[in-house]
Amino acid sequence: MKILLLNPPGYENRAFIREGRCNQEQGVWATLWPPITLATAGAILENAGHNVTILDCAAQEIHTDALLNRIRAGGFGLIAWSAATPSIDSDLALANAIKAIDLPLQNQAKTAALGTHVSALAEESLRMTAGLDFIIRNEPEKTLADLAECLDKGLEINDIQGLSYQTGDGQIVHCPSRPFITEPGQLPYPAWHLLDLEKYKLPLSGDKFLMLAPVRGCPYGCIFCSARTYYGKQLRKIPPARMIAEIAYNIQRFDIHQFFIWADTFTADRDYVERFCTEIHKKGLNIAWTCNSRVDTVDQDLLYMMADAGCWMISYGIESGSQKILNQVQKKITLSQARKAVKLTNLVGIMAAGHFVLGLPGETKETMQKTLQLALDLELNIAQFYCAVPIPGAPLYNIAQRRGWIEAKQDFVPYEQFRQDNAVMDLPGLAPAVVNAFRKKCFMRFYLRPRQLLKMLGLLKGANLTDILKGGLRFIRWANS
After folding, report:
1. What is the pLDDT of residues 405-442, one digit of tens each?
2. Concatenated DSSP letters for 45-68?
3. Nearest residue to 140 (alpha-carbon basis) of 119, 125, 122, 154
4. DSSP annotation string for 211-227
């Protein structure tokens, strides 16, 4: 069967990332990520004998009309795509547009959506769009493979774990949930050959990069995060030797040496990271990589090992400069741990990126100022400032609903406003407009310091002039918006 996997066009044709818990528009310093979920699913489907096409419409600048023309000529039996909260209206409307293509009934493709939003709100999502045949809940690869097999062989779909669908008489059926994959090391390498890898480059430097997913699941319970909806809370790890073989394959086939380790907290299992770094040394791999971490999961010895194995940047979820806010959102870290982790990261020669969230429950102007001050005090190379967004699938979504924080003039705030660059929660004593204005202030205060500008110049080593100019123009346009 011919299958099309999509990262669909962004709403208003904006470049958009839809990957697990990360539903975000390409930001000021951000880059587009190669879609590792689609590439992994594509590999599984290819191994099962299907003819697979992957289109990353955001990266390839394929607008809706052009996409529909490709579908019209493609003869696909199944079209599945990632959906995200801010773009959910256009993401789901795509199903109706596909069904409206003038094709014989036997040539009509079945449609399916996946991602955290549709997993958390499966019934609502199906009722929003008559043209959507299926929703794939939670971890999607195996469910998508089972669905493709059943459609290809004309088998019944009502026993496919992790699947939701609407019957002809309008009833919504939720098949039992699928257990999370216990041994992700048995999954094939992502089918990166199905994508144009020239489209994925690191910001500023312009180096091509790929994603690695050695660990799935997050044992931490931060209320503003939807990670558990996608991958659950149990850590499931691919053996380090298997990951190193995947890296070597990517180097040999695609000549790519830069990698982003896609794991909610790569350092959650210290022993695993040690073995991963040891395997890199054993194989003599010349690579550079970045990862996400928590400030309470690193120490000096581990950081030295990571640096020696090619880690050049660690992104820390620091979130707030107020210990009270950190406690309320169940982050379970301390400000002293944040200061120590960043200090040690700099000491071993790894760049540190800090991620901060404004407008969390309990936030005030004073606590936001503490967050800005912490960002200025830490020796960070990069800082990202986000707005707290009650994404469906995160506990904060239910909290915000119960407390009436996401109602606008007695109506629910449109999902298109649920973006990480836009505050939507009307907190007691703190209006969304105040949070949005302060977020811009944070960026300006952090980056327009002479010392910080010098650090940014240090990231430009080997950068393409075109990429530098594009990044600079994005920042100027954003600053003046």
Report:
1. 997 644 678 898 999 999 999 999 999 999 999 999 99
2. HHHTT-EEEEEEHHHHT--HHHHH
3. 119
4. EE--EE------TT--H
Q: Quote the CA–CA distance of 305 and 400 in Å, as a whole number.
A: 42
Determine the Cα angle at 472 with ends 469 and 478, to 5°: 140
pLDDT tens digits, 11-49: 666 666 788 777 766 554 457 889 999 999 999 999 999
Looking at residue 37, what DSSP letter applies? H
When pLDDT is averaged across residues 265-279 and rounded to a whole number, the result is 96
Residue found by looking up tokens 């791999």 in the block: 285
**Number of residues that this document lists for the chain:** 481
- Our CA angle for 359, 138, 186, nearest 5°, is 125
Mind listing the domains of the chain with CATH numbers?
2-174 (3.40.50.2300), 201-479 (3.20.20.70)
- Using the Cα atoms of residue 128, residue 133, residue 136 and residue 141 in order, give the sign of their dihedral: negative
Lateral strand order in the sheet of 51-56: 51-56, 2-7, 78-82, 110-114, 134-136, 163-166, 172-174
3-state secondary structure of 130: coil
d(CA 300, CA 348): 8
Token representation of residue 214: 């050695």
Report yes or no: 97 and 69 within 8 Å, Cβ to Cβ.
no
Residue 353, helix vs strand vs coil: strand
**Distance from C-alpha of 197 to C-alpha of 361, rounded to nearest angstrom:** 40
Query: How do residues 241-255 score in pLDDT, each as one tens digit?
Result: 999 999 999 999 999
What per-residue string of b and e applies to 42-54 under the rule 16 or more CB within 10 Å gives b?
Answer: bbbbbeeebebeb
**Number of helices followed by number of strands (H, E) in the chain:** 18, 19
Distance, in Å, from the CA atom of 176 to the CA atom of 163, rounded to the nearest integer, reads 8
Mean pLDDT of the chain: 91
Residue 182 CB-density burial (10 A; 0-12 exposed, 13-18 middle, 19+ buried) = exposed
Tokens 């918006």 correspond to what residue? Answer: 481
